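Take a careful look at the protein record below. Let me know whether the structure tokens fit the sequence:
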Amino acid sequence: MNAAAPAPALLDASADPLDFSLADRLPARAAGRGRLLIGAPPRDDRPGLLFVPGAYHGAWCYAHYLAYFAAAGLACAALDVRGHGALPQDAAFASATIADLGRDVADALDALQGPSVVVGHSMGALPALLAARQRPVAGVVLLAPSPPGDLPGALALPPVPDAAPRAAPGAAEIRARFLATAPGRDVGAVSRRLCAESPQVLNDRYLLRVAVGAAPLGAPGLCLEAGLDTHDRHPPGQDLAIARRYGFSHAVLAGQPHCMMYADNWQASAGAILEWHRAQFG
């Protein structure tokens, strides 16, 4: 992959990467059981981007991406799947599965105009892939993806208790795993927005219960690997194997941690997505 595309104009490169306040100001609308934050409506016939967050996260985590791609002239939206972000968690939330979240992504695709590029981060890669099996998509982008359960050699993880939603990670884990940042950094802006997660969602991923199939998805794709990701969840070669399984391009962002969409220098991942999008769609 070539050097990342130049950053669109009108963005303040000095802004705090942990400032997600734009997400509180964007228009939102319902989409099935989910909620869409609209970064920009369509301006031309190029496909827009639908961003799907990972475990514990909501649409807010893509605030910088929404500003970035809107400034690049692309339609973009981010999704709160059921029980995440600004959506309440009801009594049924603890039994929600990744298949349920896949239906939320499919409903969001239906609510958008024309085929979109669906972008899934971490656990969110799995409902994004499931939705790409259920609906026509223009493309698929995976960011530090969780592996499909039927990926040969995929790494399983110990399950969590399934009686109640799992509390969000604390500050130490946010610093070490999500951001690979200094031990004393204030990450309260992240921890205040994280939500509890359905134990069924977590165990679907940890126990490799989500099969996506090896057949081509019928759309181009990109898999971005976080070079600073933790090997207990992302062993060397796993992200590349996911990319090869679906015929996607693959790139390693050497200086990026797991949550590359709001890490320091998040523009590196946004630029890689924009470069890929321009190569595919003009």
